[in-house]
Amino acid sequence: MVAIVQCAGFLPAEAANGDAVRLTFVENGVSSLDWQGVNFWAGGEPGITAMQSGLIDGAPKSLLGKKLSSEVDKATGRFVVDYEGATLTSTYSAKGNRVDVRVEVKNKTDQACDWVEVMVGRLHLLNRLENQPANPGGSLGVDNQRRLGARILLARGAAIALGNWNVKDPSVVNTGPTAAGLAGTPILVASPRVTARPSHPIVENRLLEPARRVIEPGQTSNFHLSWSFGPPDATTTELAPEVLKHVAQERPFKLNWPDRRPIGTLFIAQSHTGWATNPRGYIFGAREKNDVTTPEGREAFGKALLEYADRSVKILKDMDAQGVIVWDLEGQEKPHQISYVADPRVLAEVAPEMDQFADAFFKKFTDAGMKVGLTLRPTRFVKKATSKWGWTQEEVPDPVAELAERIAYAKKRWGCTIFYLDSNIFNADWLTPEQKAAMKNVPFTLPVAMMEELNRQFPDVLIIPEWSMPLDYTVTAPYASPNLRQRGTPPDVRAVYPEAFAVVMQNRTALEQNWETYAKQVQQGDSLLFLAWYDDPGNELVKLLYEEKALRLEGPPKGIVGGDIKNLLALAHTGSTREKYFVAEALGATGDPAALPALTSLLDDPSPLVRKNALLALGQLETQDATLAPRLLAIIQNPKEGMLAPFAARALGASGNIEAIHELFRAPENHRLEQTRQYGLFAVESIRGELDPEAIELTVNLLNGENRDTAEIAARVLGVKKVKQAIPQLIAALQSKDEFISLAAVRALGGIGDRQAMAPIAALFDRGYATVVVYSIRGALDEALRNISGESESKSPDQWKALSAK
């Protein structure tokens, strides 16, 4: 006799078509978990795998004891397993595409339980790196700290969102290692396994305590996890919206900063210049000839500072900025490691010439309606006789109190409400050898509780931490840097907190070559940082991104999407800027060659955004006019059209005009040489069909060039176009000293799919990595080897090496 639990579908229409999960129970537990006719249940009676006390004091002791009994209530899906030291109750239920598992652990002993782990069952999953409990590629258990809400597990024909509903009571939901002789991957839920208290020689350890869940004698602790089923390419947002919403409700978003306009930056000093009369290295005015050692020199210094402010205010207004951050108000007299003083309270001591004029300086901006801000750091800038430079940064017992004093000072004196938080990590560089030895189990970044406390004290302030964890987004707007390949708010954070945002540093090259990425991030709420003391070429691109945001949020006028092509062609000539912007997009979607003349005419439109969409549309057409190539080349080679150049290059590639494409690689030697070469690579990547020998040679030559960005793009192109002739050069690039180029070569060889690359790729498992590449290389190696070998599942490094040797 079996009992089948089947509930209404998660999405009613889909459930009616078989998307509802079916749980079947038998005498000793779950016998099947069926979704779309496939049984994903691999067995496993629920059970406690570990229950310990004494982890913190270093004397771990098992509290579990032997198993006494187990029973199943098939009608309710309730399992009870009794041990000498605990009682485990697990309840399974199905609703729509989701299975919920609720777990209770009762501590029957007279000792507090520091850690408990429960196996709730085994699922048939692909043997893939993404499904493993932990790996250098970042696949972590869902702990609602480092990973929020849910993670995707991969199965044959399905994606399964593994959800963690425990927010206030910390827990980890994870996969476990497969066991010999048993099918499937164990699914585990556990309390955090904390084996030692933090020990910092200076910072108060109470501020660093990790999240724990202790089950006291006689008490019961509850856990809730879920599996949500969907198609293989589904995301957590699509599969598990309820758990994401639950996390956001239990750990609400608290940052109140609705203004998402761009923010200007002012870097007013140069590090460690040694300028005798301008020791802080201030670069406005007469730069190295500034003389702050005399009354007359200081007056000239002050005048130049206020003129600098006036120029910056004009730029800020032109950019419709919400405010400005002065990155180095105190100057940068010392070397870079300590150059940012980041403490306005000591301004009079460390930079008296700036202290004299700082009030008038900030007033220029606040009078213009701008928010103002500074750089802070959680360490203290102090005099130290033993330091080579006479000063150093030192850790403080309470970083929150330290930062709060600085924020309060800057708010009161200048009205500051924006603060970049530099080096918000626990850095052993400031410690003595003895202190370093005593520093153990300390988190890398300041815990989110510190950020929450600052937000509580200063709810009207925006803090921008240099380093961040997902929960920091609830009370701050973390910094993102293109140097670290960061483009904005991570998708998994935004899935839980749609209102979260990052403050993103930009540069012209990053914007030009990743336009759509930045446009999407800005549209979703991220703010861009820009240089506010001169007319930086990237600033025009920032303005255009915000203009495009406004167009996209307003949406297309009625009748354009899916509209009649005759009306679209007419609007291409007579419409408003908004209409033309969306008309170009709509004409490209038709793929109709009849749109070519209208799209070509839009290349003369005054709006760069209209021209950009016209170029995108031209790249979508199957046929191109041979006379179009000179127009596209002119755009690419015009320094004033930088934002449009990548789009023009891709349209040129789609046109198939090989001679025009080759022309880009013969650009004259000038400051735009590398950019033009990169545009040439974009064009080659967009060529329909196979590449000609000359294009291959040109691309391979750039793979071996000195410019990292160009070499990375060249590798990508060779992989996307599956250029087998380039395999020897790509294999050589695997050994590049530049780890980013090595990573790009791995991905390219995986895209080409030739077995001769397997052994050289597998050899990279033994390489040590010093940059952020370490976070993605393990997954990239595994994916490349799977693509080449045709293996559907991941293998260990040793297994890959053995397979590669065959």
SSE blueprint:
Elements lengths: L2 E4 L5 H8 L2 E5 L2 E7 L2 E2 L1 E3 L3 E7 L7 E2 L4 E7 L4 E6 L2 E10 L2 E10 L7 E9 L26 E6 L2 E7 L7 E4 L9 E6 L29 E11 L5 H4 L1 H10 L12 E4 L28 H24 L4 E4 L9 H4 L7 H4 L1 H16 L3 E6 L3 E4 L7 E4 L4 H16 L1 E6 L11 H6 L9 H10 L4 E4 L13 E2 L10 H6 L6 E3 L2 H6 L1 H9 L3 E5 L5 H18 L10 H10 L2 H14 L5 H7 L5 H13 L7 H10 L7 H11 L2 H7 L8 H14 L6 H11 L4 H13 L6 H7 L5 H14 L5 H5 L14 H13 L7 H8 L2
Parallel strand pairs: 18-19, 18-27, 19-20, 20-23, 23-24, 25-26, 26-27
Antiparallel strand pairs: 1-2, 2-3, 3-4, 5-12, 6-7, 6-12, 8-9, 9-10, 10-11, 11-17, 12-16, 13-14, 14-17, 15-16, 21-22
Question: Could you characterize what this model shows?
Answer:
The protein is an alpha+beta fold and 806 residues long. It is built from 29 helices and 27 strands. An eight-stranded parallel sheet has the order 24-23-20-19-18-27-26-25. Strand 21 (380-383) and strand 22 (391-394) form a beta hairpin. Helix 16 packs parallel to helix 18 and helix 23 runs antiparallel to helix 24 (708-720).
How would you concisely characterize the structure shown here?
The chain is of the alpha+beta class. The protein is 37% helix and 18% strand.
Structural class: alpha+beta
Integer average pLDDT: 92
In terms of DSSP E residues, the strand content is 15-25%
How many strands, what sense, and barrel or not for the largest sheet? Answer: 8 strands, parallel
Main β-sheet, spatial strand arrangement: 24-23-20-19-18-27-26-25
* Distance, first to last CA: 51 Å
> Rg from C-alpha positions?
30 Å
Number of strands: 27
- Which percent range fits the helix content? 25-40%
* Morphology call: globular
Low-confidence stretches: 1-17
DSSP summary: helix tally? 29
Please give the oligomerization state of what you see: single chain
